[in-house]
Design brief:
The complex is a heterotrimer. By secondary structure, chain B is mainly alpha-helical. In chain B, about 50% of the residues lie in helices and about 0% in strands. Chain C has eleven helices and nine strands. Classes of the chains: A alpha/beta, B mainly alpha, C alpha/beta.
Chain lengths: ~400, ~80, ~270
């Protein structure tokens, strides 16, 4: 039984909506700004921040600011509404939601904690109401009219991809008729300082897969797909032909030198689709811009594709690393790449990483004959996921 | 110098939460990473914090910093040279 | 959909053996209380070497995640004004820390996913396991649930008025699940349901045709203290009841305002 993608929704630092995001990439305009504008922090580092305040997001969604939703939920609702509309989902059917997040309502919890640390009877309780991950999912359900089975996944930066994998299983087993899958993460002082403490934030715009790369830029966003069973869909963008999640089992944060997890995830995802490495036309790589990730991912690609590594690029120099949302954001970009034959440029690339010598796509091109696109998402805890989309 | 080495050992044990290890167990000249104490990249970040927090010494996490991280003794030498 | 339970372990079973279960001091010294006890419980549950090698999925569940580390890092950010931050609590605050650390400790490269869906986390993880087994993607799975309480979280929940009727709780429960019955199987999971509306004890009994010899565990989670994955404790208790000779146990849970879930367990054969 085939699983097809029938709708897409996307919000990132590039803007609101799939078309806005694609237009920015086509024009070569990055969403990375020199320092946060809305996030409360003293860290002046480049970030991929959406230029809208929480109040503006509430307004745009016609949700009363008094509802006081977390930024993660607001971004998610924007993207899910777009995806539902795009697929013209009939919400009276059994529509499910598999959402993912890593920071959830942390942006609000941070406000609460400032007061709470001083005095445990202080801090507004409405600021911790959305702390847990499920609260984001519940808010999406409520404001998007989704009533079927729902769950929330959190496996760090591969979360969004794992939501796609679970959604496909639910469709296959007839537990839902239609499923919305993806992830959302807002910028937070928690994560920005977290990556700062790991000393992997680049002080300049990030340069994935470049020899001089010096870390990642944190981003925010939400990316969701609507998926259905092929025989019940009227029209679709592409098929989800295969997927896999495997573990690197090397280190809590670092990737193995040989890219074991990444290699296993890509290899198994292709095998599950009944495809061979030579069938792949484009890979939207995880490519965070850290020394470690890009080297390990290069090693894994060389292991799998040998001297025939397909066209690949990281879109994180445009969006920043959107953590749990990355799997969803990049799944949307991968679906659109396949549907419109787009190869996205890997912004800020100049020199290949030695000894791998891999050169990503550097020019935006459209109208290519793409048949198979792979999207990679890797996270802490050795969590590695790959999705395979075909026409 | 000896006192600084002793202090550094105590900070390492405390901050890295090294179980069942006393300052006497740490050979000041043995490698901290890999075979020696078996520390890893996250510990390197914590050691950078120790140097900054207790001695006001800043160190970047780069290839040039690698020799400094070799042993407790090399850390102590670096602190002596750079302490304000 | 169906799966078999070979073993169930609770955190209290392993407290004295943590060092033996997590021999890697390098990993152990960074672990918070919940991570240490949950990882130890998971490792104990997998049992011997041959089982570890056969393990082809690790699926974990947590409602709150690693709260103590999250809080530690957040305090560090606020109190130290975003300076001199220790990365360890940030790294360990990730929801998939327990699943990831078990994989790391056991050099296991298999499927490893974490569900964080409030009181449904454990049931969602179990559903994933059932689906993977139905698709022949897995044969030997480690399924686990954990949550921890911290003084701050207790204070916050108290302010929210959640403890008027019960105490806060915490715990870790792991189950070794197989696709086929083995000579070590002790129970089978024969059904799982996610209901939209709450139903009475009588309605559940009628829906499942629960007889006098069988057992219905209706909303028993709070006996283990109020925490999102407390239903995993009731699940463990249901497995124990079947080991004691009860032929079928139906577990109904409806945590706070969440929609109800039902798990049906039966004896083997």
């Amino acid at each position: 039984m085939g699983i097809v993608v029938t709708g897409v929704g996307l919000v990132s630092a590039l803007g609101v909506g799939v078309e806005q995001n694609l237009a920015s990439i086509r024009q070569g305009v990055s969403g990375i700004k020199s320092k946060p504008e809305y996030l409360r922090t003293t860290n002046e580092v480049p970030v991929g921040e959406l230029s809208m305040s929480n109040e503006e997001l509430h307004q745009r969604l016609s949700i009363s600011p008094g509802e006081h939703l977390s930024r993660t939920a607001l971004l998610a609702i924007l993207a899910v509404r777009e995806a539902l509309e795009d697929a013209q989902v009939d919400l009276t059917r059994r529509v499910g939601l598999i959402s993912s997040t890593s920071v959830a309502g942390m942006d609000l919890t941070e406000h609460f904690f400032e007061d709470f640390i001083e005095d445990e009877s202080a801090g507004r309780l409405r600021d911790v109401r959305m702390h847990d991950c499920a609260a984001t999912t519940q808010a999406i359900m409520r404001y998007c009219g989704i009533k079927g089975y729902s769950t929330t996944i959190s496996t760090a930066c591969s979360s969004g991809a794992n939501a796609v994998i679970m959604g496909a299983k639910l469709l296959k087993h007839g537990i839902v008729d239609c499923v919305v899958v993806g992830g959302s993460d807002a910028l937070s002082a928690f994560t920005l300082n977290g990556f700062k403490s790991l000393m992997i934030l680049d002080q300049s715009p990030c340069r994935p897969f470049d020899a001089t790369r010096a870390g990642l830029n944190l981003g925010e966003g939400a990316g969701y797909l609507v998926m259905q069973r092929e025989e019940e869909a009227m029209k679709w963008y592409c098929r989800l032909a295969g997927s896999a999640n495997r573990n690197d089992a090397y280190h809590q944060t670092a990737s193995s030198v040989e890219g074991d997890g990444a290699y296993l995830a890509m290899a198994e995802a292709l095998a599950s689709a009944g495809l061979s490495p030579e069938d792949v036309d484009y890979i939207n790589v995880h490519g965070t811009g850290t020394m470690n990730n890009d080297a390990a991912e290069s090693a894994a690609m060389l292991r799998l594709f040998a001297d025939a590594v397909p066209a690949f690029s990281s879109t994180k120099a445009f969006t920043g690393h959107t953590l749990a949302a990355a799997g969803g954001v990049e799944a949307v970009l991968s679906v659109m790449a396949l549907h419109r034959g787009i190869l996205y440029p890997n912004m800020n690339f100049r020199e290949p990483i030695e000894p791998y010598g891999l050169v990503p796509v550097v020019e935006f091109t459209q109208g290519r004959d793409l048949r198979c696109v792979v999207s990679n998402s890797f996270g802490f805890g050795g969590n590695c996921s790959s999705l395979v989309f075909t026409r | 110098m000896e006192q600084l080495i002793q202090e550094l050992k105590e900070h390492l044990i405390e901050e890295l939460n090294l179980e069942e290890i006393t300052p006497e167990d740490i050979d000041a000249e043995a490698p901290l990473f890999g075979d020696g104490l078996g520390l890893d990249s996250i510990d390197a970040l914590e050691i950078i914090l120790i140097l900054e927090k207790y001695y006001g010494v800043k160190l970047a996490n780069s290839a040039e910093a690698k020799p400094v991280f070799y042993s407790v003794k090399t850390l102590a030498e670096y602190v002596m040279q750079n302490r304000k | 959909m169906r799966c078999y339970i070979e073993r169930v372990c609770r955190q209290s079973d392993v407290i004295s053996d943590v060092k033996q279960l997590i021999p890697d001091a390098g990993l152990r010294r960074r672990m918070s209380r919940v991570v240490k006890s949950a990882v130890a419980t998971g490792v104990e549950c997998v049992g011997g070497v041959e089982r570890i090698e056969a393990l082809d999925a690790i699926v974990t569940a947590t409602g709150w995640g690693c709260l103590a580390d999250s809080e530690r890092f957040l305090r560090n950010v606020i109190v130290d004004k975003e300076q001199l931050l220790n990365p360890t609590p940030f790294i360990q605050s990730t929801f998939n820390t327990v699943g990831g650390q078990i994989a790391l400790l056991k050099h296991n490269h298999c499927y490893n996913v974490t569900y964080v869906n409030r009181s449904h986390s454990f049931e969602d993880a179990l559903l994933d396991v059932l689906l993977r087994i139905a698709d022949a993607q897995s044969e030997n799975v480690l399924l686990g649930a954990f949550d921890e309480q911290t003084p701050s979280q207790q204070r916050i929940m108290e302010r929210m008025g959640l403890f008027r009727r019960c105490q806060c709780g915490e715990g870790a429960v792991f189950a070794l699940v197989t696709a086929k019955p083995t000579e070590r199987s002790v129970a089978q999971v024969s059904g799982i349901e996610f209901l939209a509306e709450s139903i009475s004890k009588e309605q559940v009994a009628k829906r499942y045709g629960v007889t006098a010899e069988e057992e219905l565990m209706y909303n028993r989670y709070a006996e283990y203290g109020l925490y999102p994955t407390a239903s995993a404790q009731v699940f463990a208790e249901a497995v124990e009841r079947i080991q004691q000779g009860v032929e079928r146990v139906v577990v109904y849970n409806e945590y706070l305002g969440d929609s109800p879930t039902i798990i049906e367990l039966k004896c083997i054969g």
